[in-house]
Amino acid sequence: MKTDKPPTPDKTPDKIRIILIVLQIFVGLGALMPGYSLITDPSGRGVGFPPGLIENTVFGNYLIPGLFLLGVNGLGNCLTALLGLLKHRYFYPLACLQALALIIWIGVQVLTVGLRYWLQPFFGLIGLLELFLAWKGLKKHGLA
After folding, report:
1. Residue 31: CB atoms within 10 Å
2. Could you read off the pLDDT of 46-83 as tens digits, one per residue?
3. Distances (CA, A) of 50 to 62, 87, 100, 113, 116
């Protein structure tokens, strides 16, 4: 007597989605307050940046980096994580964009002020991990 078991569903996309959501919430929530602080005090003193660090760069002060940090890395990651929780069809493409934005953010930081803090490579690696996972999720869903 042969018993037919139903095929076990592939849980990989859900594992990928959950890990991505956790990473995006971590990055997003971690970017909100520093981004807001850089907007309200573009000198960077509110987050403990040394005076003169950014004055001789293309930015001149921390207003533009603060807007990017709050809007793209903060709110963008939080909203994308919400889409992941809702299992929205655009979650993986937006997760790829958020990962690329984080990688570019870190790259611009290193190019403008140098490699100064351990957080730069840490978040650069998180961005690469997010990109890898989001790409894997895209492929699993036949979107890439």
Report:
1. 25
2. 999 887 889 889 999 999 999 999 999 999 999 999 99
3. 12, 42, 28, 11, 11
